[in-house]
Amino acid sequence: MAEQHRKITLDSGWLAARSTEVEYTGTQLTTTNPPPPSPFSPWMDAVVPGTVLATLVKNKVVPDPFYGLQNEAIIDIADSGREHYTFWFFTTFHCNLSANQHCDLNFRGINYSADVYLNGHEIILPKGMFRRHSLDVTDIIHPDGSNLLAVLVHPPDHPGTIPPKGGQGGDHEIGKDVTTQYVEGWDWIAPIRDRNTGIWDEVSVSVTGPVKIIDPHLVSSFFDDYKQAYLHTTTELENRSSWTAECSLSIQVTTEVEDSICLIEHLQTQNLSIPAKSRLQYTFPELFFSKPNLWWPNGMGKQSLYNVVIIIDVKGFGESDSWNHHFGFRKIESHIDDATGGRLFKVNGEPIFIRGGNWILSDGLLRLSKKRYNTDIKFHADMNFNMIRCWGGGLAERPEFYECCDYYGILVWQEFWITGDVDGRGVPVSNPNGPLDHDLFLFCARDTVKLLRNHPSLALWVGGNEQIPPDDINAALKNDLRVHPYFEHVDENSKPVGELSPNFRDPSQYLDGTRVYIQGSLWEGFADGEGNFTDGPYEIQNPEDFFKDDYYKYGFNPEVGSVGMPVASTIRATMPSEAWQIPVFKKLSDGYVEEVPNPIWEYHKYIPYSKPTHKVHDQILLYGAVKDLDDFCLKAQLVNYIQYRALLEGWTSRMWSKYTGVLIWKTQNPWTGLRGQFYDHLLDQTAGFYGCRSAAEPVHVQLNLASYFIEVVNTTSEELSNVAIEVSVWDLEGTCPYYSVHENLSLLPKKVAPIVEMKYPKSENPKPVYFLLLKLYNKSDHRIISRNFYWLHLAGGDYKLLEPYRKKKIPLTITSKVSVEGSTYNIQLHVKNTSKGPDSTSRLMDGFHYSTDTPEIVSCGPGKEHEIGWFKRVHRCFAGKSDDGLNVSEIKGYDVGVAFFLHFSVHDASKMGCKEGEDTRILPVHYSDNYFSLVPGESLPIKLSFEVPPGVNPRVILHGWNCLEGQTIL
């Protein structure tokens, strides 16, 4: 049990058993007959929070449903009946109460209903996956503090059946309940056999005095151009005693000024009386803040957070209850943009161009954790994304998810539990009136709003995915989630309501009041805005098509998807050897190729890298014939990088002129799927991750693949002056046939600037395959603002010449510095292509003049300054370990050219050379960059961070297209 102030979290020590195998009642289990310790009993260690299926997998009662075809070996609830997945969960906890103390037993999420037994007393919990249950068990707690708890969990009422051919949401029966809808299967996931039955979210015991604090609401308002702010706070208070409580209610707001050093911004105390056995809503006097630190989305500024603490003291008792929450001062607005027809978002008055992704949930078996959430959301921030859409067929995401989004600056679009496929569309037409119990849906929705509304990252509520909720639900949500006038969009030339007078009606009196409610994901500024299926497409595209006028004609696309093949190690780790067979390439009469995957790939929803019906040639075969799984997956990574970089660059190329935002379907998979992902379920990134990371830089230099104009996208609020662009083309012989520098440029904020046409393809005798390196740098301090590397072929060509290029061996020097804090490794790498390029004549590269051999080009990531001192020490090292702790690895090579598509991986050294298929990787690893290329003489710093289990020695390995493969560099 994890114990906090006044709260005990029950997250370990649980047992579980199938209800039909337990001979005792709940009363008996929690009095005279608790589960026996015998290994022959039906009881097993349980996953709580988690699901029945997660518990069965943990105990190896059923095989891992995410491996190969093993999901087919698990009986589906449609065939077994609901009783098969009706389970008892049992635990004990210790809790002593003193005079006038009260105890609540809290369930933050149960799917779908439950019978709770505590010390022989029964409490029936109502239905609904997305509602909290807080039970006053003061009179049930044992005086000696030792308590027995048993919970009988029932599956959803309408688990449905799975049609032979699968389908979007199975037979749609699951939509009759208020629960997750993906569990009957979709075109990206197989069915979840227990339909997520279980105690799937936090269970806790909380102790308070006679008065309890319930669901405070925090809202900020600004005036004087965001230089001054008010904090409005309303909370509900419940007096559970039989006498009037004379209370002292205080609110404290602190901010962190340095590591672990906090400054108290406000401390206010109010006195009030609360009648016996009653509830009241209390609103604090407004707190004034001068020059508050603002919360900004990723790429726009800092994510400043204040800690708000509310404490209530009762006369004659002392501190009765407390509540705390991190809060960000920020204002989110949105409206339908006249120029594009898309919904345009503003944060703190600044327009924000949305680049993000669709999200289902971390894990299909609801094995959710703070640690996993932190990795997930940091990955999104690392890709330079600024929004996540929580899709309506998944979860109302958990507070821990939102805490990470608050910290990393990711805006969240949160949908309620409606999808077009399950709730009104499809053939035959699915549930035309949504869930059976509309009151239950609304109760869950309102409770979800109260749970999540204080998070600054939460940007908007949406009724459903590709569908509007039933009329009565939709009308109720519109009313409940109406926006306070201060947060409504107004004309640019007029001031917002309340701009000059902060004493307007308190927005914290609203259920939310600060965020817009949109009735569906295809309405009101998304897709065509009318609810038609105008999102997508969801398959491979010709990269240049993303830049064309006719590609997508609406202002904001909430879903556009593509491929997502992971690396070969993931295939071997998640599938048996018969699944290591690559697709059959079937050439059609029109010359296009159709991919035919093996049955296991098909089961895992593989999406091909060709689309004959849309005249998209197989993008993997552009690189030549494929030999085996490793070759296929490596070439897939090349395509992943190009595909997703082009997608985002195509959208940002039309920022504000045609588009206001795009959300990619989807960023990750909650199981071992083979489509639409930037990192796999094991948390290894695909190359598409780094294509997105490059394209979504706040300031980015790019090549328009349709016009071949070099463009700079500035999504920030700052004008950039005295910047320059360096353009260099490199051929497969290691020479530089095209070079130009464009200096004295100024880049306006929130603008796309076409700079110059890249004319190399129109030059005399251009090479059929070549590399292009673009660098945008600040001339005053030599800082690299953006670096972008392309591999390109002439129109109508392919990349087949890259196949013999693999035979070249390019020399590299890799210098590393390691620091270890506990179980966390932080590694700084400096990778240099040491091949000697051609002579050059006084070229200006990275802000330095060179007049002899090809210069050493030291590239830094966006916003990073040269680590000059460290680099000088690097250059003194030749091999082995230097005096100042730097390790140097020399990768032998004898050729000159671009070191192409380099990438690192981290492994458990003790497992290296083990049996085929065993996964030796240490995951996750956070890389500052990966899948990168270096021209002759160029250097790049790379940072790695990862955790290792006790006793494990990590090994960092370098892979590359044309360097010695699998080199251990650390």
Molecular shape = globular
Low-confidence stretches: 496-503, 840-880
What is the residue-mean pLDDT, rounded to a whole number? 92
Number of contiguous helices: 13
Rg value: 29 Å
The major sheet is characterized as:
7 strands, parallel
Number of strands: 51
Distance between the termini: 39 Å
Alpha-beta classification: mainly beta
> What fraction of the residues are assigned to beta strands by DSSP?
25-35%
Write the layout of secondary structure elements.
Blueprint: E1 2-4, E2 7-9, E3 15-18, H1 26-29, E4 44-45, H2 52-58, H3 77-80, E5 87-94, E6 102-107, E7 113-118, E8 121-125, E9 133-136, E10 146-154, E11 203-208, E12 211-223, E13 228-239, E14 245-258, E15 261-274, E16 278-283, E17 287-290, E18 306-314, E19 318-327, E20 332-336, E21 343-347, E22 350-352, E23 354-359, H4 370-382, E24 387-390, H5 399-408, E25 411-415, H6 438-452, E26 458-462, H7 471-480, E27 517-518, E28 556-561, H8 568-574, E29 584-587, E30 593-596, H9 599-603, H10 629-652, E31 661-665, H11 687-695, E32 699-703, E33 709-714, E34 720-730, E35 738-747, E36 751-757, E37 769-778, E38 783-793, H12 802-805, E39 812-821, E40 824-833, E41 843-845, E42 848-850, E43 857-858, H13 868-875, E44 880-881, E45 887-891, E46 899-908, E47 925-927, E48 932-934, E49 938-947, E50 954-959, E51 967-968
Helix pairs in contact: 4-5, 6-7, 10-11
